[in-house]
């Protein structure tokens, strides 16, 4: 369990999006990468979680283009979707 209250809050929000698909993509991304994030990357992720689930899933699936404001290394990692466990 993470002892950092900010990261516990972020993890909860990442895994409780409102749709199961977004839970797996956003929550899985958090679980895979959060341990190495810088303060700037944490800030990016917190802002990213404010976006609508439909937009996030659309970006992940490539059905809608990623807005310029979200493009960069964090989005590149997110779009790989290699952190989503399919069982």
How would you concisely characterize the structure shown here?
With 87 residues, the chain is an all-alpha fold.
What does this structure look like?
With about 90 residues, this protein is an all-alpha fold. The protein is about 60% helix and about 0% strand. The protein has five helices and no strands. It has helices spanning about 5-15, 20-35, 40-50, 55-60, 75-80. The protein is globular, with a radius of gyration of 12 Å. It starts with a helix and ends in a 7-residue tail after the last helix. The mean pLDDT is about 95.
Major sheet summary line = none
Rounded to an integer in angstroms, the radius of gyration calculated over CA atoms is 12 Å
Give the total of beta strands: 0
Proportion of helical residues? 55-70%
- The helix tally amounts to 5
State the end-to-end CA separation. Answer: 24 Å
**Beta strand %:** under 5%
Shape: globular
Task: Name the structural class.
Answer: mainly alpha
- Low-confidence segments: none
Name the assembly state: single chain
Mean pLDDT: 93
Keywords: Chaperone
Pfam family, one: Sdh5
Protein name: FAD assembly factor SdhE
InterPro entries: SDH (IPR005631), SDH_sf (IPR036714)
Pick out its properties:
87 residues, mainly alpha
Question: How do the strands and helices of this protein lay out in sequence?
Answer:
Elements: H1 5-15, H2 20-33, H3 39-48, H4 53-61, H5 73-80
Helix pairs in contact: 1-2, 2-4
């Amino acid at each position: 369990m993470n002892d950092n209250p900010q990261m516990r809050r972020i993890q909860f929000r990442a895994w409780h999006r409102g749709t199961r698909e977004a839970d797996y993509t956003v929550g899985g991304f958090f679980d895979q990468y959060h341990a190495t994030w810088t303060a700037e990357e944490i800030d990016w992720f917190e802002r990213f979680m404010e976006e609508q689930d439909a937009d996030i899933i659309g970006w992940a699936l490539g059905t809608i283009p990623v807005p310029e404001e979200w493009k960069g290394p964090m989005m590149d990692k997110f779009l790989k979707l290699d952190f989503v466990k399919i069982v």
